[in-house]
Design brief:
two-stranded antiparallel sheet, 248 residues, alpha/beta, globular, Rossmann fold, single chain
């Protein structure tokens, strides 16, 4: 079923917001009431302003920063796969957190690999696989080939499908994407590793939780303050990946 949505997933709708960060919002003219509401929200959003001030490519950077501050999932030396990485805000956070540039000589040097169907502009300290489908086994092979020792310490996902406007359908599509990432985790995530994925809360959320509990020692739901209150998005965080035999 995952293959049927291959061309539908992308970086979440906030990507549209991200692209506006370096454009003067006041200069944009809304053609519809919906666009005007969106522009007004952007102008008032403290995370949009903070992202611009701190040179993050997207406000979503603050979601990862908040989750990591509370849950401690990123360490210097970690090898991380950033799924649905465009436009690259999470990868910006990762480069600093895992020390992939070696900016701190006192700690281990990490590795950041971002993957997306969309183009991702280059970022020092990260390797990007643009226009690659994470549901495609060929992409999995590319990831394995690029990861040091073919293993990751952390898999992160902020990706989501293009919204159809049908809540149940969109929810099911995102569930399918999360299931494909679990397949990836079985292949590349080291024992003891961590997994974080976004999901829109709904009827199939427990399916993902159950699958995670089969593979990880600890599973919890988190919703960072940077995630808009009205959004149905939540994040499922799983820690302490079991060995591959026990996860089957």
């Amino acid at each position: 079923m995952a293959a049927a949505v291959t061309r539908l997933w992308r970086t979440p709708p906030s990507l549209l917001h991200c692209r506006s960060l370096h454009v003067t919002l006041g200069a944009q003219k809304a053609k519809t009431g919906t666009e005007q509401i969106w522009l007004t929200r952007q102008q008032r959003d403290p995370y949009v302003k903070a992202a611009h001030a701190q040179n993050y490519r997207c406000r979503s950077a603050f979601k990862l920063l908040e989750i990591d501050k509370e849950q401690k999932i990123l360490q210097p030396g970690n090898r991380v796969v950033d799924c649905g990485a465009a436009p690259g805000a999470w990868s910006q956070v990762l480069v600093d957190k895992v020390n992939s540039l070696g900016q701190d000589p006192a700690v281990s040097v990490g590795f950041v690999l971002g993957v997306d169907l969309l183009h991702i502009s280059p970022l020092e300290g990260a390797i990007f696989l643009s226009k690659c489908d994470l549901t495609d086994p060929a992409t999995h092979r590319k990831i394995i080939a690029l990861l040091p020792c073919g293993e990751a310490d952390v898999i992160l996902s902020d990706m989501a499908p293009n919204a159809s406007g049908i809540r149940e359908l969109d929810h099911q599509r995102l569930v399918n994407m999360c299931l494909s990432l679990l397949d990836l985790s079985d292949v590349v995530l080291r024992p003891g590793g961590s997994f974080l994925c976004k999901i829109w809360d709904g009827g199939e959320s427990n399916l993902i939780r159950d699958k995670l509990r089969q593979r990880f020692q600890h599973v919890k739901t988190v919703k960072p303050k940077a995630s808009r209150t009205e959004s149905a998005e939540i994040y499922l965080l799983a820690k302490s990946h079991k060995n591959k035999k026990s996860s089957n």
